[in-house]
Amino acid sequence: MRRLMLFRHAKTETDAPSGKDFDRRLDDRGRTDAALMGEWLNKHPPLPDMVCVSTAMRTRQTWDLASAAMRSNKPTVEHVEELYGAGLEELVAVIRDAAVQDPRRLMLIGHNPGLHEMALGLIKDGSAGGDAAGRKALGDNLPTGSIAIIDFAVDSWNDISFRSGVLVQFVSPKLLKDNGQ
């Protein structure tokens, strides 16, 4: 069994002082939401064994704040340039590269539209795809700060394929706040 956690960076400022998208930072809500998601993860193990983080400022800040809230977890962390602006091919390549270290639970912290497309592409169709309410919410969007958790009945990351995963849970800062968490 392998578990993939797709974590979109939290809410950001509109423009970076440098004028470069890569340098955009989290805004106040983003900092709060990243910490909230880390707290949620801490309360809902299992936590990731390995985390691949885009090198963009907002993803690094998201991980720093989320990981600070996951006090009991010290995963292997890699900053991966290819996650910035990654499409499906690049995301699959990052997962395959992580296979070398063989984590059972892998988290990618990156960007849309790639993460959203990846989540939709990996989940099985119909009821076999897992969390129905989560699939419906995820079908609309992968909002900032949200996490899609997908399980695969495989022994190696090299064996995952599209439409082979089960959505265990979809959670976002808005859903947590709406439920009083």
Structure description:
With 181 residues, this protein is of the alpha/beta class. The protein has a single domain (2-101, 114-178), classed as Phosphoglycerate mutase-like (Rossmann fold, 3-Layer(aba) Sandwich). The protein contains six helices and six strands. The longest helix is centred in the first third of the chain and has 16 residues, at 28-43.
Output the keywords.
181 residues, alpha/beta, Rossmann fold, six-stranded mixed sheet, 6 helices
Q: TL;DR?
A:
This protein is of the alpha/beta class and 181 residues long. The chain is built from 6 helices and 6 strands, in the order βαβαβαβααββα.
The counted number of beta strands is 6
CATH class: Alpha Beta
| Second rung of CATH, namely the architecture | 3-Layer(aba) Sandwich
Tally of helical runs = 6
Largest sheet: 6 strands, mixed
Number of domains: 1
Distance between the first and last residues' Cα: 29 Å
Supply the CATH superfamily name.
Answer: Phosphoglycerate mutase-like
CATH third-level topology: Rossmann fold
Shape: globular
Cα radius of gyration in angstroms? 15 Å
Which structural class do you get from the secondary structure elements? alpha/beta
Low-confidence stretches: none
Strand residue percentage: 15-25%
Helical percentage: 25-40%
Q: What topology does this entry show?
A:
Elements: E1 2-8, H1 28-43, E2 50-54, H2 57-69, E3 76-80, H3 88-98, E4 105-110, H4 114-122, H5 132-140, E5 147-152, E6 166-171, H6 173-178
Parallel strand pairs: 1-4, 2-3, 2-4
Antiparallel strand pairs: 1-5, 5-6
